[in-house]
Amino acid sequence: MPLIHPSIEQKVHQHLRNELVELGCPVRIINGMPDHIHCLFLLSPQRSIMEVLKQIKGSSSYFINQNDLIPDKFGWQTGYAAYSVSESAIEKVFQYIKNQKQHHRKKSFQEEYETFLKLYGFEGDDA
Q1: What pLDDT score was predicted for residue 126?
Q2: pLDDT tens digit string along 31-43?
Q3: 54 within a domain of the structure (yes/no)
Q4: CA 91, 113, 20 angle in degrees (round to 5)?
Q5: Within a domain: residue 126?
């Protein structure tokens, strides 16, 4: 659902940034659309990706709800997607995240996600 409106976007992104830094995960960039967010960060060697994402999803949901940033109760979808990025691809990923709004004028998140799944062989019922 498109719940992260431009009026709250920076507050949500800043909260996510603060949480990631507190977890020992230096942040390169956070950006997104009203229905999803991308974060490029260095994973702390002391934490699993599952642990980090559980923490930032939980704390940001709490932050949004406690501060009444949207009229209804907020909660992230179940699950997440996480990808490791080679050092040589960091700048390309950074630019992709930076230009989310322009990028999604051409292709919706759902279209992009389905293309990604097919490209990497994850199509079918288990994807």
Answers
A1: 47
A2: 998 888 999 999 9
A3: yes
A4: 50
A5: no
